[in-house]
Specification:
single chain, alpha/beta, 3 helices, 21% helix, 26% strand
Length: 158
């Protein structure tokens, strides 16, 4: 499956530099974020690949000045019984395109990623917080969030 996947992507998108790697039988495909929706749509619609399910997505905060965040997408092909991981990097403050129009299951995960990391998704149908109040200024899974929380925001019983 890996060979078919690599050949299909490189044939369909010769202009994109894909980096393929594998860890514990999970293929990771890293590429530029500007191609995310095109690649995702191809992976879903190509009859040989048929990645019909977006199982999950999240972010990693590397806390570095370059490529601060990595967006991770876990896709599954029911017909091939095969799972892959897509990875795109983002700078601080960069937005990424929503894939919720391709896989409806991405809707809540994108909202959760926005709430916890502050990453915004272009063309998301309902990008608002899920866990934290709308007026909350912070994003709890970012590296700069204080381990003990915001001073004065939580009063513990005495």
């Amino acid at each position: 499956m890996q060979t078919i996947l690599e050949q299909s992507l490189q044939t369909k998108f010769p202009e994109i530099k894909f980096v393929f790697s594998e860890y514990k039988n999970l293929i990771e495909i890293k590429f530029d974020k500007k191609y995310l929706t095109e690649v995702a749509l191809f992976l879903k619609d190509d009859p040989r690949l048929s990645f019909s399910m977006c199982e999950d997505l999240t972010a990693i905060d590397w806390a570095t000045s370059n490529n601060r965040f990595s967006m991770i997408y876990i896709l599954f092909s029911l017909s091939n019984k095969f799972r892959i991981k897509l990875k795109v990097d983002l700078e601080e403050g960069e937005k990424v395109d929503s894939i919720s129009a391709i896989w409806n299951s991405a809707n809540w995960a994108e909202r959760e990623t926005y709430d916890m990391f502050g990453i915004e998704f272009n063309n998301h149908p309902d990008l608002r917080r899920m866990y934290m109040p709308e007026e909350f200024e912070y994003h709890p899974l970012r590296k700069e969030f204080p381990v003990m929380g915001i001073p004065g925001s939580l009063s513990l019983p005495k």
